[in-house]
Amino acid sequence: MSAPATSGPAPGLGAPGTVRASHDHHELGFFRKYIFSVDHKVIGIQFMLTGLVFFLVGGLMAMAIRWQLAWPWTKMPMIGNLLFPNTGEAITPEFYTMLFTMHGTVMIFFVIIPLLTGAFGNFLIPLMTGAPDMAFPKLNMFGYWAMIPAIACVVMSFAAGGGGPAAGWTAYPPLSTIESAAPGSFSAQTWWLLALTWVGVSSMMGAVNYVTTIVKMRAPGMTLFRMPLAIWGLFIAALLQLFALPVLTAASILQILDRVAHTGFFTPTNLVVNQLSPEMAGAAAGGQPLLWQHLFWFYSHPAVYIMVVPAMGFASDIISTHARKPVFGYKPMVYSMSAIAGLGFIVWGHHMFASGMNPALGMTFMVSTIMIALPSAIKVFNWLGTLWGSRIQLTSAMLNALAFVAMFIIGGLSGIWMAATPVDIYIHDTYIIVAHFHYVVFGGSVFAIFASIYHWYPKMFGRVMNETLGKIHFVGSFIFTNGVFYMMHQLGMAGLMRRTADPYNYETYAHLQPLNEFISISAFCLFAWQIFFVVNFFHSMFWGKRVGRNPWKGCSLEWDAPSPAGHGNFDHELEVHRGPYEYASREVDEDYLPQTAKV
Amino acid sequence: MRILVTLLFAALLFLGVWTFADAETFLLAPMPEGYTWWWPKEISTYGQDIDFLFELISWMVLVFFVLTEGMLVWFVYKYSKPTDEKGSGSHGNHKLELLWTAIPAGLLLIIAFAQMSTFANIKFAGSFENEPVFGEIWGSQFDWRFKYPGHDGRLGTADDVESPFELVVPDDQKIVMNLRSRDVLHSFFIPKLRLKQDAVPGMTIPIWFQVDQEQLAEESKNEFDIICAELCGWGHYKMSGRIRIVSRAEFDAWIDEMTTKKFDNGEIN
Prior knowledge:
The complex is a heterodimer of chains A (599) and B (269). In chain A, 60% of the residues lie in helices and 1% in strands. Chain A has 20 helices and two strands. Chain A has helices at residues 17-21, 30-35, 40-70, 80-83, 93-129, 137-145, 147-159, 186-216, 229-260, 289-306, 309-322, 330-344, 359-371, 373-387, 396-419, 421-427, 431-461, 467-493, 513-529, 531-543; strands at 463-464, 545-546. The two termini of chain A are 34 Å apart. By secondary structure, chain B is of the alpha+beta class. Chain B has two domains: 2-80 and 94-123, no CATH class; 135-264, Immunoglobulin-like (Sandwich), CATH 2.60.40. In chain B, the strands form two sheets. A five-stranded mixed sheet of chain B has the order 3-2-1-5-8. A five-stranded mixed sheet of chain B has the order 4-10-9-6-7. In chain B, helix 1 (2-21) packs antiparallel against helix 2. Chain B starts with a helix and ends in a 5-residue tail after the last helix. The interface between A and B is large, with 114 and 103 residues.
């Protein structure tokens, strides 16, 4: 059934026989196989489908945001009379605040993190390290099912109160903690915090599993420095979650207490909010709003790296496989990912340069933040080194991975502007910031996710996705993504602030409306273009071309397993003889030498 | 596909260079006077320091951008050519790794140290603590209020003058003001002055600026936007204000007028 317990010698390491033994299982019923499964591959696919559904939800909210920014307070076509029957079919300011709050929340906590660590972390770690399953399969199942209360809480936060959560995805107090500051969002904000806490539980279960599996359950011969970079990325991301998540959980419990039990961790004395005094109403005070910002960013900055380090790993593997060339500088790649993670813990203050934090502290955060560009630069050079002298196959997976590199460069370089404290004074919270993190998270991580889906789809379903549709999807997505996010740099340079529902009342911003219109139209096209992906994804699941174990002629272990792999993963014993990137090897006639092959 | 992909990546490279190098004419729509899709012209004494640092970083970034994206475009074109030969089996190059670690490290350190004196000048207490406090800025949902000490030069006395929405300042002195909030977080942002600071309830945060008279003389007007730059609730988008920069004589006359108005209203007897 499930993988053997980890007590005693780890399976695959000390007792290779267990790999085969675990494969002798009886057929499971539908519910045990697809719904309440303990198989890491099924759990991974569950995470993926959930993540993609929420991608649609978050995307729809982005479209509504773009409607408002291009044509503020005008009738929304088609769904306006459904959503806003009382306000002339137009978005209200409260609704707009809810939109960008929930767009950020959904995309970060329900899309990117679950897709990268939940979906691919689950699916790839045992397959690529040669383990029959995760170390704790039931805990792993719990990790997915902890997403259900999280989803329920998020749905409740939409439904409860008058306007939904209204304090941004960063939930800065006192706006998020004082009821009269955001009328209508009181219970919504509490549900939102509970959702965040449950997502944290889910991530924690995953992270414990990933670290244990990688440390204890690798196949014989699979040393740490023979692991594919995808596994290194997931390993490092899991460590980040283990160390950073408790802080966010503690912080959100403090904020829940502030709201429900009227404690005052984040509430200063003598507030008068909307003509009401929280203290007169019986709430405690004497707290400090900046405390929340420190606690929040202590998790949420490492979370940015949780959202990009695995993507870096996936892109490295995909580029190497489809360029038929070993990853250039494997160890520097590992070290630079580790450096990003390590430095990632001492840069959170760069979100607070304008916050009123001691400016001397800002100076030190500036130096650490600027230096984190170094490992990122090293990674870019090594990806380029990988391409140099390669034999590029322009598959859909490769195209998306190359786009990841192209757009990560932009997102990385623009980061230096905002790391520099004096420059940040002007660009802080402008659209340059919005452009920057969308280049990293959308241009970077989302394109890496697309690449990974094209690349590992055959292992999931035994069929490849349609290449023609894949290429059409790529070309449009690439053009429209840059149409949306590149131009946001220009908005930011003109000084446009994010989270502004109607900027054009300001003299400074009045001329930016046509540019916003252009961006919105690009965004609608980008959204619509994803139909090619959706059709391809579901069509290929049933009618795609069947392929064997190794359609891309890859070297790493997952291509040794059947496509799709059964419960227990491998149908033969594994022994790893070399690193994962022996492409263009001179030792054999073929242009690849799998990790398990004997020469 | 090979040509198409090369063109796509090359277009990104071109877009980057064009928007940067040709920023002033990168305008597809008619622009009102003084406003572009680039930074608006600054009018404060430290504004030019900030703009200089932005340009310094931009030039360095541009070099790396052209280098890396250029190599990407070239490699994608060159190495996607169909062939039966095996590619290079290279696993890396130690010297290259050292080179592309050391050079960016040096440049990044230069960038980091180049920021420090400007940041210290703008934010550290040493640059304003000996100046008298010019007034107070109060943020609350969803307006800005400005408090002046009045004729006695002291805040918190009966002759204090309060001005909603409009901040009037003289152009010939360093203006030091205490930034405060009554309710939630706000952020005091004047794009033309390159000034931005969050207002935090429970904290008094000093800010300062000095108008550059020569730069101001080149402007066609003396009134500019004040913008709230931190989400403060549903009405955040309309939490605006104006700053009016006037000569010393005009400022004194304005304070007199505000004081008279206040006493005429019978607020103080």
